[in-house]
Amino acid sequence: MLDRVVIVGGGTAGWMTASYLKAAFEDRVDITLVESGNISTVGVGEATFSDIRHFFEFLGLKEKDWMPACNATYKLAVRFEDWREPGHYFYHPFEQMRSVNGFPLTDWWLKQGPTSRFDKDCFVMASVIDAGLSPRHLDGALIDQPFDEGADEMQGLTMSEHQGKTQFPYAYQFEAALLAKYLTQYATDRGVKRIVDDVQDVRLDDRGWISGLRTAEHGELTGDLFIDCTGFRGLLLNKALEEPFISYQDTLPNDSAVALQVPMDMAKRGVLPCTTATAQDAGWIWTIPLMGRVGTGYVYAKDYLSPEEAERTLRAFVGPAAADVEANHIRMRIGRSRNSWSRNCVAVGLASGFVEPLESTGIFFIHHAIEQLVKYFPAQDWNPVRRDLYNRAVAHVMDGVREFLVLHYVAAKRTDTQYWRDTKTRKIPDSLAERLELWKAQLPDSETVFPYYHGLPPYSYMSVLLGMGGIEVAHSPALDLSDGAAAEREFAQIREKTERLVATLPKAYDYFARMR
Length: 516
Ligand SMILES: Cc1cc2nc3c(=O)[nH]c(=O)nc-3n(C[C@H](O)[C@H](O)[C@H](O)COP(=O)(O)OP(=O)(O)OC[C@H]3O[C@@H](n4cnc5c(N)ncnc54)[C@H](O)[C@@H]3O)c2cc1C
Ligand SMILES: N[C@H](Cc1c[nH]c2cc(Cl)ccc12)C(=O)O
Description:
Layout: E1 4-8, H1 12-25, E2 30-35, H2 52-58, H3 63-66, E3 73-75, E4 77-81, E5 89-93, E6 99-100, E7 103-104, H4 105-112, H5 118-122, H6 125-130, H7 159-162, E8 171-173, H8 176-189, E9 193-196, E10 199-204, E11 210-215, E12 220-221, E13 225-228, H9 235-240, E14 245-247, E15 256-263, H10 266-269, E16 275-280, E17 283-289, E18 293-300, H11 307-318, E19 328-331, E20 335-337, E21 341-342, E22 345-347, E23 353-354, H12 362-375, H13 384-411, H14 418-422, H15 430-441, H16 458-468, H17 485-504, H18 508-515
Helix pairs in contact: 1-8, 1-12, 4-17, 12-13, 13-16
The protein binds flavin-adenine dinucleotide and ligand LVLLB6QQ.
The site of the ligand N[C@H](Cc1c[nH]c2cc(Cl)ccc12)C(=O)O has 16 residues, from strand 4.
């Protein structure tokens, strides 16, 4: 039996993997995690997809167990500011798109939208977020979305199985370092062995498979399956096994970030329940409100901006609250390993691949990789078919997300700096170029978006296209021959529901303060 797993790296990827494998296999696998006391984690992964609730569910954790320990808040959307023009904003929310007579409501909106704001007309969440509200009432009851939290048929589903069934109305924002600490406790309580040491050498056998890891103080660690969670270093997969890394930088040039963790009195400031991405001259700034601080950072391309200038701009953006806060400068490796599983090594997290944090996909990649690893977990025969299926699934997720992110830049109306002008002439993936031609005639649907599971539903593409405003899209001609009354009723229902929710939901801050 293959039952000895060694994980290298104690960041979000390492501890999420250790916790999940323990929850899946209990004592039938022996798990050791080795993490360096000298090499720090990236530790800025703060915003997630809504799907991450499947991860916590799998671990048997409820929000009240882990959220207060991680200073966590709810994220109802990504709010894009200034991507179209200064002062403009729109939301990409966690809310399923309604359909009327077989056409998405956004299609009707293009023909007869009540206002100029597609997000407010088509989703209730846009106004809920503007008002700084929680999607749960103070007694914990969830906003009445077409989603039944306790539905039996929804339990135990993986993310890809769940996609398209219903849309959970929120994701989370949290301190990544605190989540890693929380999961360290969770995993070690359940028998994961933790070693704090540096891996100095990776030993390969005659076939080139990993036979052991030489550590500074704990001798040689042996195992069957080695999981590389060493971050951008890719110590096992890319360095020792020499698995090539495919860069995405030709299409996604942002390769640098500078981050600040700004302590803040959130009772005074309030919590806007979303992640904000504010366009800048050479990239964009994220703002993530947590309980007790705001996480913020400037993501940029070093070909267009120096680290010093990026830090200056970020500090000016945040204001005096950041005066005493030390900046964390990060170089990002953008792209994916050709194969994330090679021989007896699987890379998870940044060692596997990463795209810039626009749309917060890093932790989603980790979660997806772990679900797939359990699905295709190897047996003693190391059947290569399972490995290949795993590699295909992981590559599809990252390639699909790459297309989705490139769309943001191509579709953004801004052209006021060289950086933004270049987004309109830079090479884009061929498949995306073809899709864009289709979307100009007909809004994206499941037939025309990236065809493999990559986490993002067609309505996400519609939201970005309509919000960014740089690509002209048209409504379906069939709507000109159709009665629009049902769509008008739907818009009216959304308005009524929005008014009811805004009048009854508590402030997001009050909800979390009560949870603590
Ligand atoms: C600027 C930025 C913003 C981001 N924002 C988000 C976001 O909002 N949402 C999101 O989902 N994701 C985000 N991410 C991604 C997210 O941070 C990562 O996916 C997540 O932190 C996982 O990192 P990791 O565990 O793979 O690597 P790391 O955090 O880099 O951890 C690597 C681990 O390996 C250990 N290690 C390395 N070498 C050795 C060695 N020789 N011996 C022993 N141990 C070793 C280190 O000590 C460390 O414990 C962001 C990333 C960046 C760069
Ligand atoms: N898998 C989905 C992905 C998804 C659906 N709506 C959104 C909105 C935003 Cl801002 C990010 C991702 C998604 C999920 O997480 O629900």
